[in-house]
Amino acid sequence: MAPPPRIRNFSIVAHIDHGKSTLADRLLALTGAMDPKKAVDQVLDSMDLERERGITIKQHTVCLPNRARDGQEYTLNLIDTPGHVDFSYEVSRSLAACEGALLIVDAAQGVEAQTLANFFLALEANLTIIPVINKIDLPQADVEGTRRQIAEILGLNADDAIPISAKVGTGVPEVLEAIVQRIPPPAGDAAAPLKALVFDSFYDPYQGVVVYVRVFDGRVRRGMPALLMSNGRVYEVQQVGVFTPEMKPVEELSAGQVGYLTAGIKRVADAKVGETITDALRPTRAPFPGYRDAKPMVFAGLYPVEDTAYQSLRDALEKLRLNDSALTFEPETSMALGYGFRCGFLGLLHMEIVQERLEREFGLTLIITSPSVRYRVVTTGGETVEIDNPSRLPPIGEIDHIEEPHVRASIFAPTEFMNPIYRLAQDKRGEHRSLEYLGKRVHITFDFPLAEIIVDFYDRLKSISKGYASLDYDFLEFRPADLVKLDLLLNGDPVDALSVIVHRDKAYEKGKALTEKLRAVIPRQLFEVAIQAAIGSRVIARETVKAIRKNVTAKCYGGDITRKRKLLEQQKEGKKRMKQVGKVEVPQEAFLSVLRS
Amino acid sequence: MTRSDQPSAVSLQPTGHHPLGAYVHIPFCRQRCHYCSFNTGPYRPAAMDRFLAALLREIDRGGEAEWAGRVTIGTVFFGGGTPSLLEPEELETLLDRLGKRFALAPSAEVTVECNPESLTRDKAEGYRLAGVNRLSLGVQSLDAGLLVRLGRLHSPEEARRAFEAARDAGVDNLSVDLIYGLPDLDLPGWEATVRGALAWGPEHLSAYGLTLDEGSRWHGEGVAGLPDEETVTAQYWSLARLAREAGYEHYEISNYARHGFRSRHNQVYWRAEEYLGLGPGACGFLGGVRYGNVKPVERYCAMLDAGTLPIGTHEILTAAQRKAERRILGLRLSDGVPFAWLEDKAPLVESWKELGLLEVADDRCRLTEAGFLLSDSLFVELLEPRS
Lengths: 597, 387
Description:
The complex is a heterodimer.
Chain A: E1 7-14, H1 20-31, H2 48-53, E2 61-67, E3 73-79, H3 88-96, E4 100-106, H4 113-124, E5 128-134, H5 143-152, E6 162-163, H6 172-182, E7 195-204, E8 208-217, E9 219-221, E10 225-228, E11 233-236, E12 239-243, E13 247-250, E14 252-254, E15 258-262, E16 276-279, E17 298-304, H7 310-323, E18 328-334, E19 338-345, H8 348-362, E20 366-368, E21 372-373, E22 375-379, E23 384-387, E24 399-414, H9 418-427, E25 431-438, E26 441-449, H10 450-453, H11 457-464, E27 470-481, E28 483-490, E29 493-494, E30 500-503, H12 504-521, E31 529-535, E32 538-545, H13 561-574, E33 578-581, E34 584-587, H14 588-595
Parallel strand pairs in A: 1-3, 1-4, 4-5, 5-6
Antiparallel strand pairs in A: 2-3, 7-8, 7-16, 8-15, 9-14, 10-11, 10-16, 12-13, 12-15, 17-19, 17-20, 17-21, 18-19, 22-23, 22-24, 24-26, 24-27, 25-26, 28-29, 28-30, 28-31, 31-32, 33-34
Chain B: E1 2-3, E2 20-26, E3 28-29, E4 41-42, H1 45-63, E5 72-80, H2 88-101, E6 103-114, H3 121-130, E7 134-140, H4 144-150, H5 156-168, E8 174-180, H6 187-199, E9 204-209, H7 217-221, H8 229-245, E10 249-252, E11 255-257, H9 264-270, E12 275-278, E13 283-286, E14 289-293, H10 297-305, E15 311-316, H11 319-330, E16 337-338, H12 346-354, E17 358-361, E18 364-367, H13 369-373, H14 375-382
Parallel strand pairs in B: 2-5, 2-12, 3-4, 5-6, 6-7, 7-8, 8-9
Antiparallel strand pairs in B: 1-15, 9-11, 10-11, 13-14, 14-15, 16-18, 17-18
Helix pairs in contact in B: 1-2, 1-10, 2-3, 3-5, 6-8
């Protein structure tokens, strides 16, 4: 590895699909870090799932040797970042490990919501930003227009933007040269006490957790006692190395360098992203600022379709958690769905990824309940309780008020879609914050209750904007809201599993929708079934499933008893998946129709 | 249900606790009714002759069983099809043969299903002299227009005349079959039919709700004007009321009788007692085995020609199945079943009681008339668990 003055640490950031992974592959190929003959498209996105979805979920990092035009050998450390809103904290930690960032903008799409979000993250991290205009080979590419947006929206110098086509390779050498020329070399004092930032990790069954680090001060080598400053644990460093992209052990990593270390750490959660590692014998004075626990924001129940798969689901979740410290889960019992887990996710995408991995890698078939958020309940006694399951809400008399998480959302869209977007925002209890005209497009920001946008917001946004609107959001704060618990009752018995927390203004509409839905799927019984939605003792919606009037095989001709029994058996088959609520038989699909709505 | 190419593989051995029933299927009609899904084909004299020869052979074959001499036949029921297509002589031959191969109890109930258009006074008298002591008349409706729509070959007036002819011929046990829930049949129309039939003074009345079973014309083509559930239910209740007022006992889900005139043959079924099935598609129950003859008449005849019993399907009931059947069938009767039979279903019994669908008295559980109407919902719960 080159000495610090010839090291460049950088990331690539972009809106989804603007070509981040393609450029990363190009850089690998061009620097010889990857044998083109062995090239699998987009090697950095190594999980199948990532490749299929075209997005990077887990970040990777690679060390690129590069002979620059000045004839010198440089080491370029590309620190890949996850490309989705759910992972903005992880992105910010990766960026904190860099001195510079390539900000890719699609020449046909222009600046989008996540371009802006990533731009701000890079700015916060004090990075040198190199704007890169990608996909200039496309017929609809508008390089000049994109330059203007870069200047107007991002306030960057448009002349600094490098037009490229990562797909065909045009302009990529210029990008390499700009990395060398424009991004400053890492500062830092190799003689000072060790101070290294954890920006990623993964679990390896043989070596334990492999921790990705950027060394800012000092050096780290094998045998050194490493102190993890957030939790005070000390581990003996077993190996240090770099990614070429394969893991390659080296003597030491010193100030300015990027690589990995292993230290017999058992769980990813013990060396979280944002952690500061120092020398236990000669610790640095203060950890890096900005460390925080990745906090799950979105919650859902995961249930195996087959009751017998409960233990397998638990094992699978344990395994995933080894590698995913943001995933939380605890056992949950639902009358409707049996034994499962209440899981916490960073966001919807994170949830989908976990679901897909459980199904694909572990062969599980799952029922996932509709996602919800964590509410903060302030009791009359002044206590604050966080609940992520409506059934755990304290009795109404003990609630002083409820707060719900809000996000700030940033939406980019062509001006023609403004009206529907405002309507959607209104429908979703959005609070308008700002509006900016950018030529033919607008940039609108809203504050939303998170609960409103985790269910069918993104799909609706895409649909009303013919796919042109882009969205980014970030957690803002908890705000008091007029929230109520909406209970569903069957013949007067509340069905715990079906309670939901809703805004009072939407309670009536929601209650009506849910009772109607249930009426459609609850079969007629021997007695009339009243389906009610209630807030406390006040019923706000009611539907009735009329009693079945007759169910009889009157005729039983010529003693053909076998046929009669077969008919009864058919009826019985249809009742198999019914659950008993009080005296009412409720099919599983009734629960699902509510839980998934 | 096991299908076997070698029907003789199953051994039918009655336990002989009770006299046997015998169901005899006559698989021909002059015209198939539009709601009918039974095993019947067009009547041709030659086909009837060939069939009767085969039927006698089947009786003979059955009579060869070593147990044949030890059992008594307590009831015989000629169903169809249209058994009243048989000449009295033919019927006599069949009954003689049955009596020769098995012991036919002197007090045996012998029923023939009759279609009004094929029943004359002479024929009824001939039947009576041949040993028949009960006729069941397929009236179905007393609405002239509806009878045409059903594909029946008789008018309301002809039905009445057939009934009176049977009475004149000295048949003192007459049953009338009716169907409710028919297309465009409203409550007053149904009550008119019920009142009309009751006025004839039959000893027994069977009334079925229309079902569109697979194999019927209406099932295939569909039929317009079917009354809604509310109306059908109202028809059931008005029948129950009118029959009660006229002094009939509602002794089974679909059956009403004056005192002492329940159908003994049908009670064999409901009490899970044993019976022979004779004729194509006929079902029997012997020694814990439910069996069914092959349905196509040609195949039935050919098998008997070849000297084999024409059994097409059979099912050997497990103890659990027998238990389930006993209570399901028993509950069809107003006599109900001993309470002990349902001891393992106490919560179910309790909830049915609360809903007024079931009564417990004298250590027996009985469905109420409301319970009859919803009986399948209970029976489903009484099925044996799948093994």
